[in-house]
Design brief:
Blueprint: E1 2-4, E2 17-24, E3 29-37, E4 41-43, E5 52-61, E6 66-75, H1 97-124
Length: 125
């Protein structure tokens, strides 16, 4: 998640503050503490473990004040890949080169192993 903390009166970044971010879905709670922010922009890496609505709480400690913010983040349900479509492409865009390489490797390696096993068995007979 990326944050940009602005002063709403002059639209400039608030600088040199400490931040704390808490993410919760009502059952789980994850904290990012002691985040030093020199220029007003910062980010935290968080993988949402569950789908649904999560609450994000932000606390900004400046030299002169404590600022609080809260907002909701909706995480849609992500279907696991199926055997018939192990590389779902939800965006409706063509596969990129990395996806094509993965598809080819997953198809070619088992076929090559199978052919090698058949050839080894035939040579022994």
């Amino acid at each position: 998640m990326k944050f940009s903390v602005l002063n709403l009166t002059n639209n400039e970044h608030i600088k040199d503050f400490d931040a704390r971010v808490v993410v919760t879905n009502g059952q789980r709670l994850f904290k990012f503490e002691n985040i030093t922010v020199p220029d007003g922009d910062f980010s935290v890496k968080y993988i949402f473990p569950d789908d649904g609505t999560h609450q994000v709480l932000l606390r900004v400690n400046t030299n002169t004040s404590i600022l609080l913010a809260s907002f909701s983040v909706f995480v849609p349900h992500q279907s696991p890949p199926s055997l018939l479509n192990p590389f779902p492409n939800n965006q409706g865009q063509p596969y990129n080169i990395g996806q094509w390489i993965s598809i080819i490797i997953i198809i070619v390696i088992p076929i090559a192993v199978l052919i090698s096993a058949i050839l080894i068995i035939k040579k022994k007979i």
